[in-house]
Amino acid sequence: VCNCNPRELRHSLPMAVAAVRRLLRPTSSAALSSAGRLLSSTASPPPNRSPNTNSPVSFDWSDDDESPAEPPPTSPAKNPAPPPPYEPFSKNPAAADPVDPTNLQEIFHRMRTGGLTDYAIKMFDGLSKDGLTHEALALFSVIRDKGAMPDVVAHTAVLEAYAAAGPARWRDAVRTYNRMLSGGVAPNAYTMAVLVKGLAAGDRCAEARKYLLEMLDRGMRPNVETCLAAFEAHVRMDKVEEGKALLEMMKKKGFTLDEEAVRGGTVKRGHVFRAVMNMLFGKPS
């Protein structure tokens, strides 16, 4: 447990990320081996493993009737340019997103050959910016103490790739999450947020509701961005009553949204925003 004050955290977070980059360089054999095993195809289901260790999990959906995953090609790893310095309080992303998020073959190829360090940085950054400093430093501690990538990073990286690939891939994102749970890997708040936002972006309202409530059941508090994504999807799909029902269920679980935080969490002022504000707070704008 970290009892750091905000001033100490301002200094400890960049140092922790720098240490992650030193421990797991994209060209290190441990990182490449982890990514390669994760993206390999196997016929058997993943074994039960500790949530803090690497496991040879398969993400080949070839047995499913649609949306099969493309097997990434194999090629020698290239030395990437060194990453920029980490700024924990910057609004810029901690790691660059892929140019074409629908090109899963290229994304999985990069995971396999370049490792998962950037995904660990993104997770660390997301947890830190949501105030989940203990969870972020615990993630770093696993990397520091074991010198290997936590399973939650690898699974979330694959899940995030599917979530960003567009509405047609939402089933693959959910399957990846379910495969993660069956492998004994516990999701964190960043994992759940990625899943909820991905489903909401694809207008999968029922699924977004399900996993938003699951976040609360797991003791996690979704951030404003995640909540807004879910409720905006309900507005876009003309499911306002279902959205109101979701809000009431969240309140019963002890979670309420702060109006000022919601207003500050978006720059949108169109009809969707007005409808969301009306749904959440009974105000049209």
TrEMBL record:
Name of the protein described by the UniProt record: Predicted protein
Query: Where is the segment annotated Disordered?
Result: 35-100
Q: Which keywords does this Swiss-Prot/TrEMBL entry list?
A: Repeat, Transit peptide
The reply on keyword Transit peptide is: yes
Q: What family is reported?
A: Belongs to the PPR family. P subfamily.
What Pfam families does the entry give?
A: PPR, PPR_2
InterPro entries according to UniProt: PPR_rpt, TPR-like_helical_dom_sf
Q: Which domain of life is it from?
A: Eukaryota
Task: Recall the taxonomic lineage recorded for the source organism.
Answer: Eukaryota, Viridiplantae, Streptophyta, Embryophyta, Tracheophyta
Can you say where the PPR repeats lie in this chain? 151-187, 188-222
Q: What ranges does the record list as Pro residues composition bias?
A: 69-87
